[in-house]
Amino acid sequence: MKAKLCGMKTREAAEAAEAAGADLVGFIFWAKSRRAVTPEQAAAIGASLRRAKKVGVFVDAPVARVNEIAAACKLDFVQLHGHEDADYARQVRAPVIKAYRFGDGFDARAAAAFPAELILLDSGTAALPGGTGRRFAWREAAEAVRTAGIRERLLVAGGVAAENLPELYETFHPYGVDVSGSLEVHGEKSIGKIKEFMQAVQRLAQEA
To answer: Domain N-(5'phosphoribosyl) anthranilate isomerase (PRAI), which positions (predicted)?
Structure first.
C-alpha cells in the first residue's frame, strides 16, 4: 500500500517523509489552505527529493496556471480537488489524481470513467474541499468502490492515522492512503509523527 504524505511546507518535513519511506509527497497550491505553499517554496523543497513522487494539489485553478506550476516544480502528479471536469483533466500536462468527497453526490462509476491515473476519496465540506481530518463512511464507500472496479486506483484520505491503518486496509485494500493532519503537532508537521506513521504502513505491509 502506497503512502502519500501531504501538506508539506518545509524541506525538513519532506526529506523526513522520503527518508521514512513515503511514496508521494504533496504540496498544496490552494491559497485558502493553512498548508498552502508558493510554487517557489515547493520547487525549493522538491529539489531535495530523490525518490518520492511530487504531487501538487489544486482547487479549481486555471488549467494554464496548473500546467505552469507543474512544470516549474517538476510535479509527478497534479491532484484536482475541486469541481474540475474531464475536459479540464485532459488539458493537464501531468498524470492526474482526481479527488472526490464521499457522500457529496459521489458516483463511483463516474469516477471510474474519469481520465485520471488515481482516484482519491476524502471527506470535506463546501468551504473546505479536503484536509478536514474527518473520516467518512468507509464501509459504504468501499462497497461503491468495489462495484465500480476502482480499488486498484484508489487513495483514501480523511482522518487517516497510524492507529486506524489496519481497519482502513481491511476495509478498502486500496492502492494507497493520503495523510496530513495526523502528522502534525500544533499545526506543523512532526518528524516523529511522520516516522510513526510510516512505521505503521511498513508493519501493515509485512503482515499483509
So the answer is: 3-200
Classify burial at 41, counting beta carbons within 10 Å of its beta carbon; exposed 0-12, middle 13-18, buried 19 or more: middle
Residue 105's contacts (CB-CB under 8 Å, 6 or more residues apart) are none
Residue 33 in this model has a pLDDT that exceeds 70: yes
How remote is the C-alpha of 9 from its chain's centroid? 15
Domain spans of the chain, in order of start = 2-207
CATH number for 2-207 (one of 3.40.50.300, 3.30.430.20, 3.40.50.1820, 3.20.20.70): it is 3.20.20.70
pLDDT for 52: 99
HEC readout, 59-126:
CCCCHHHHHHHHHHCCCCEEEECCCCCHHHHHHCCCCEEEEEECCCCCCHHHHHHCCCCEEEEECCCC
> What was the pLDDT predicted at 129?
55
- Model confidence at 20, pLDDT cuts 50, 70, 90, reads very high
